[in-house]
Amino acid sequence: MRVPSLLFYRILYVMPVAESRPETHPDFELEKDHLSGTVAAMIRQIEFWEDRDRQMGADLETSIILGDQAEEFAAMLSPHVHQPYFGSLKVRVAGREQTLYVGKHGFRDVKGPHTVVSWDSEVGSLFYSQALGWTPRRGSAGVIRRRRQLDVSQKTLLRVTDLYDDEQGGDTGGREEVLLRRLQEGSTAGMRDVVETLQPEQNDAMRHPAGVPVIIQGAAGSGKTTIGFHRLAWMTNADRGAHRARPEACMVLMPNRVLATYAARILPELGIERVVVTTPEAWATGLLGLEKLEVTDRTLSLLLTDRDNTRRALAWRKAKLLGDARMLDVVRTHLWNRFNAALAGQSLRESVALRGREDQVFTLDEAALAGLLRDVFAADPLDGYRAGMRRAIEALALSTLNVPEDEEASVRRQLSSPLTNLLGRIFATTTPITEARRLLGSPAELAASGLLTEREIALLGTDPLSGIPTPRRAHADVTEIPLMLAVQAFTGGIGRLDGRTLEPFDHVVLDEAQDYSPLLYALLGRATRPGHITALGDMNQGMHGYKGPSSWEAVQAQLPGAQVLTLGRTYRSTRQITELGARIAATYNRAAAVQGVDRDGAEVQRYTAPAGPDGELPLIARAVKDAQAAGHTNIAIVTRRGVDADRMAEALREFDTDAQPITTQEHRFRGGLVILPVNLAKGLEFSAAIVASANADTYDESTEYERRLLYVSASRALHWLALVSTGDLHPLIA
């Protein structure tokens, strides 16, 4: 895959690979011969599919269809010829032994023994599992005799590694050996080796029973995003039955636009195309029909720039309240009052022509309309109250007038214009932006539901962000958007638009799930098939906690039956870097203890000096040169704020250090040395990272939010980490 020049891309440093030793596995030649046979069988099959003369049907049209299908099959199989499989299983069933080969794409050799099972099949799961028993859907129970990793590249067998072999005493330690080898090699393809090295806990999370909402909690580098993508691919497999997801009916929400672009390029490699990949804000504004609306995050701006802890705490509490799940019923009550008030004096009287009968008059007075509105609110239709009200009135008209089935369409057409006018008088003045802001500006309406306290209502009336500039053009803040979506959900509906029909998404994957408010979870649950949300997050990295849940229990309350699965290992960094991050996270950790892969690396580098005229710039320049001397090329200097990154990038040039500043999502990473603020570094990986101003003056030790920022800054590096400060380093990392 071509490596895209993207900023928000998991930048993995390719470590020098040790010179390969001669392969000494006793079965190497046997496996080499089997690989050659498999490659030949695949090529024969592709040639057969591509031969149009063999794809003949009963007539020309059938022949064309068969030929097109065969070409599609050939195109799907062709990319896998260079690596037909990556592992094998020796199984014993009903007294017979057979060897199954596992690859990224299934292949059936109709004329020989070179069949490959797909990694996402039920049989493929056995390769990753630690279980030894196997019960096929049909037939007798079996047992796993051997698991084997096969490193294949460009149709060539490179290495054979036994992971489990009952003749060698069981577990060989090979799985950890393969994993460490992959981590040392690194990759720029992001997911190139993931299917080959899924660990048992990752595999279990990915294959958690379909139809159950899943929250995957994992520390930085535990593979959450990867698991989410693979779970989505697994959900599209025919083995899922009634829970199978159609790729075009699925959605992946990523934290920013550039990561969304990257994900959209990666997902087709897993065999799933046409998935909607976007950001929460882009999805929301698209659903609201406000794509040109500028979305701001003024709360984050305040938290990153304002030193007034009282003002910061007030902004935090207000943002949390705006995303509280109770706001869904606050909005519902507000709309109930609005629409009932709009019904005053409304009625419908319309003459309807029917074949063979005198014109019939259909009438509805205010009381009847109020009764229908009450029924619609109780039914809570997916496509909203307006569409639900139209259907209810049409159904009543058809029933009251005793309309024959073959005339129903005619009656609907006759009622269309009068109904549109009536519904316009009831609903037309309700738009998501104006209605959400009208609600927030009315203490009486906020109090109507009885769900908010007087103190909470007063908090919603404050403006702690008054000192943060707003755009000149039309805009909305991220903290307001869930409230606007709630208005949209009740009035115009929420979900996936298929033509003119609104339907639930088949499956939704949420990345950085700790940053979605309980209100947004409630709305996403409404927009998705029950049990079909996969949330990936880490409460320890909740930099945007002002709009996120306080705990996963708050999410479970909005997704009935949701289960939290914890990934207990992190694979990103060396032991030295992982231990440092764990020390910071331990001061606020709400998750289980995280264990890193025992991958040794360089000690964490610390650069300190007394304050001088140039500040810490000479230290940063020295750290950059040390990282480069250690062989690293993709290096990040992480600052506390965007303005720090811009200022330092300019000043570092005086010290022969040219770092590309990245301060907005529009910037692109083109390799080499970058300098960026911690809020943009979140979710990224670099071969080496340098934390600037790593002291208590920059990251307030007494504030949990600041300790979270420090954790994110210190957990970006894969292989080499430096901490820089004039004066003392932060107590948690000194």
TrEMBL record:
InterPro entries: DNA_helicase_UvrD/REP, P-loop_NTPase, UvrD-like_ATP-bd, UvrD-like_helicase_C
Pfam families documented for this protein: UvrD_C_2 (PF13538)
Domain UvrD-like helicase ATP-binding: 197-574
PROSITE patterns in UniProt: UVRD_HELICASE_ATP_BIND
Keywords per UniProt: ATP-binding, Helicase, Hydrolase, Nucleotide-binding
Binding positions for ATP per the UniProt entry: G218, A219, A220, G221, S222, G223, K224, T225
Xref: Gene3D superfamilies: P-loop containing nucleotide triphosphate hydrolases (3.40.50.300)
Protein name as annotated: UvrD-like helicase ATP-binding domain-containing protein
Organism lineage string: Bacteria, Thermotogati, Deinococcota, Deinococci, Deinococcales
